[in-house]
């Protein structure tokens, strides 16, 4: 599957806080076990070019994993892991965080030796969740870019990749391809 999304100043989304232009992959029930989610992504044409992790800064999410969805029989949609692009041109980095059942969470510490995320080039992103050790690891082209504690339920109910951003990001182009999700021990 090749999916491409673009948002520009001409795009209109009403008064929403965030823009959701992404493919969704949801299961009909919660899938217990360790999680490996891999996909190719190409990000380009970002404005503004400086991206913060979340809230008051422009932000761009490249993948969100859910441990509860209404489609899988849950009461709500609850993200367990989110991976955002942060930084400035030439110094972008993937930064993840995990969220507990009450909505509390934190961004993982930046890794000094993490690879820079290039714009205008295809990269492979892989997110691994070990539910037994409660650990998340995010890789970019096999280089570790973010790691921290996993706070979600032990498994997966769904995910989305693509263009998910707040309204402070006024322009971006995102393509995804070769999405693979594996859940189990």
Structural commentary:
The protein has 185 residues and is an all-beta fold. The protein has a single domain (3-184), classed as Jelly Rolls (Sandwich). The protein has no helices and 13 strands. Strands 2, 3, 5, 6, 7, 8 and 12 form a seven-stranded antiparallel beta sheet that branches. Residues 1-16 have low confidence and may be disordered.
Individual helix count:
0
Contiguous runs where pLDDT drops below 50 for at least 5 residues: 1-16
Q: Using only CA atoms, what is the Rg?
A: 15 Å
Distance between the termini: 26 Å
Return the CATH topology: Jelly Rolls
The largest pleated sheet is described as: 7 strands, antiparallel
Anisotropy-based shape: globular
Task: Name its key features.
185 residues; 13 strands; globular; 58% strand
List the SSEs and their pairings.
Elements: E1 3-7, E2 18-21, E3 24-32, E4 34-47, E5 60-68, E6 78-86, E7 93-99, E8 105-107, E9 123-130, E10 135-140, E11 143-149, E12 155-166, E13 171-184
Antiparallel strand pairs: 1-13, 2-12, 3-12, 4-9, 4-13, 5-6, 5-12, 6-7, 7-8, 9-10, 10-11
